[in-house]
Every structure is written in structure tokens, then in C-alpha cells.
């Protein structure tokens, strides 16, 4: 099983201060620090809803070869899946691997550790 993704929650202002502090060399992130940040539990819950976590498990188990085949497995519309997968890809939860004439979703992990 792949390692859990560590997710942090802090205000936009504090995230910005942290990034600037790192850039100035004043703070060196620990390997255990979150790599992904959300500004609220609400925004995290929207991305990692029960439905979306179930989708990750389906992708991990079924290993669909395309978004179209994932739509057939889940009964969800391709356009809806594309939007959801794009968001999840932006956070690093899913990789969208381009193949010859389709895109194949691959899950990076289904385990998450939240640090607030």
C-alpha cells in the first residue's frame, strides 16, 4: 500500500507566511510536514467527500483504462468524473496518465492523515 498523504489545514494567510518563510530560508519543512494544504475543513471535505473517497477506492481496485470505462463502472457521467478527477489530480490524490487516445486515472493513495 502506498504511504498516507499528509494534509494540513491552516488559513490562507498562514500558508502564505509559511511559504515565504521557507523561501527566505527561515524555516526548513520536516519530511513529516503536510505537502498539501487546505484553508478549512469544509474545503477539505468537499474534495475528500465520502463519494470521492469511494471513487478513489474504485479506481484503485478496478484499475480502469480510461475515464469512459470508469464512468461505466461507477454510473457517473464522464463530464462529472473529469471535473472531479481534475480537482483530485491538482491535489496529487490521482495521476492522470495520458495514453495513446485516452487518459487513465491512477490513484496515488486512499490513506490520508490530517493535521490541523
Residue fraction in strands: 15-25%
Q: Roughly how much helix do the residues carry, as a percent range?
A: 40-55%
Can you tell me the overall shape?
elongated
CATH superfamily: Winged helix-like DNA-binding domain superfamily/Winged helix DNA-binding domain
The helix-strand sequence is EHEHHHHEEE
**Spatial extent as radius of gyration:** 16 Å
**What is the CATH architecture term?**
Orthogonal Bundle
Number of strands: 5
Structural class: alpha/beta
Poorly predicted runs: none
Average of pLDDT? 93
Name of the top-level CATH class = Mainly Alpha
Short description:
The protein has 116 residues and is α/β, with parallel strands linked by helices.
Essential attributes:
alpha/beta; Arc Repressor Mutant, subunit A; three-stranded parallel sheet
Describe this structure in words.
With 116 residues, the protein is of the alpha/beta class. The protein is elongated. The protein has one domain: Orthogonal Bundle (Arc Repressor Mutant, subunit A). The chain is 46% helix and 19% strand. The protein has helices at 12-23, 41-47, 50-62, 67-74, 78-90, and strands at residues 5-9, 36-38, 94-98, 103-107, 112-115. The chain has a 3-stranded parallel sheet.
Task: Reconstruct the topology from this structure.
Blueprint: E1 5-9, H1 12-23, E2 36-38, H2 41-47, H3 50-62, H4 67-74, H5 78-90, E3 94-98, E4 103-107, E5 112-115
Parallel strand pairs: 1-2, 1-5
Antiparallel strand pairs: 3-4
